[in-house]
Amino acid sequence: MANINVKDLIRPHLLELSPYSSARSEYTGNEGIFLDANENALGSVGKENFNRYPDPLQRTLKRQISFWRDINIQKIFLGNGSDEAIDLLFRIFCEPGIDRVMVCPPTYGMYEVCAASHKVQVKTVNLTAEYQLDIPAILENLDENVKMIFICSPNNPTGNLINREDIKLLNNSFEGIIVVDEAYHDFTTEPSWLIDLESMNNLIVLQTFSKAWGLAGIRLGMAFADEAIIQIMNNIKMPYNVNTHTQEVALKALEKKREFEDKISRIVEMREELKKELLQIDGILTVYPSEANFLLVKIENASYLFNSLIERQIIIRNRSKVALCEDCLRITIGTKEENLSLLKAIQEILHGK
Ligand SMILES: *Cc1c(COP(=O)(O)O)cnc(C)c1O
Question: How many angstroms separate the CA atoms of 114 and 100, rounded?
């Protein structure tokens, strides 16, 4: 619902909490003799500047992300992967044992795991057969205790975008938080939900450096939302949640947007190639359309193929026990050579050649 007061959704005790004030947030200059944080003045046994605590609010990095995504710094939260942001959102909006969230399977598993760890009940409403939101069923299952709805677009593991109009429709009848997880957004040409942040103050958009940027190892996730929400996220996060190395690597990466774009177009190209090749193989029933860096493939005896591939040290994801994904396997796009090895192995396993 446009322009609800998000402060009314935040757990009241958090509005009154006075955040930990770290040494580095009290004095923010770069120059000086720093004797305030009990760091080791003789230096680091690792990289030169690692004896110093990182910027708790990652200001330099946020400035660059703000230029890149054209979003005000006050609307950006950075965390130790987007998983940290997901965890914080439960702490901010959900009273354990009382409030609930809605999740639409098949989708990313972390929402439910995180809910369980916070003792927050999950209402699930499966996607439709076309892997879109089942709006009538969602509306039927909403009640005043449902505080957040998680929507993943492009969706993991199905690969498709969730219809924009459906999310808008949902927004018209829901007075809680809508989280749109855009971990795979960089692989699509459709606009991000970031353009709706101004008109929907209950919208939270999640993005990450783990997929298209190829930086899963540095653990850096982004949340974009109304200033009031970002403020609370910053107040309750661990003070130095994004380490110095991660901030430095991400800053360097943001100077290489050409390389980033190139990698994305190559992956998208290989995705379409792999899809075509897979469809040539007898026994492969469907390769679903994908806007991400993976393909969902329906195949007879999926678990047999999955296990046989593992014997050949080719590891893909078995989703065949997941709602609406019967006999489905999820395959991440690899290098050209890896994709060829995969195709060859599937041929051999299914047809002995
Ligand atoms: C991979 C993935 C993430 C990324 O999580 P990080 O903690 O940022 O690595 C988030 N959401 C979905 C749906 C994903 O598939």
Answer: 12
Residue 122 β-bridge partners: 101
Ligand 1 neighbourhood includes 182 CB (under 6 angstroms) = no
Residue identifier of the C-alpha nearest atom 14 of ligand 1: 183
Cα(37) to centroid(ligand 1), Å: 33
CB proximity list for 120: less than 8 A, separation 6 or greater? 90, 94, 96, 97, 99, 100, 101
Residue 179 token pair: 């989280």
CB 11 within 8 A of CB 93: yes
Confidence of residue 121 (pLDDT cuts 50, 70, 90): very high
Determine the distance separating the centroid of ligand 1 and the alpha carbon of 48, expressed in angstroms. 31
pLDDT digits (tens, 9 = 90+) for 196-255: 999 999 999 999 999 999 999 999 999 999 999 999 999 999 999 999 999 999 999 999
pLDDT of residue 3: 64
Kindly report the protein residue whose alpha carbon is nearest to atom 2 of ligand 1.
183
DSSP category for residue 48: G
| Burial tier of 124 (Cβ tally within 10 Å: 0-12, 13-18, 19+) | middle
Instruction: Name residue 10's amino acid.
Output: I
Q: Is the peptide bond before 154 cis (omega within 30 degrees of 0)?
A: yes
From CA 227, how far away is CA 328, in angstroms rounded? 40
pTM above 0.85, yes or no: yes
Q: Is the CB of 80 under 6 A from ligand 1?
A: no
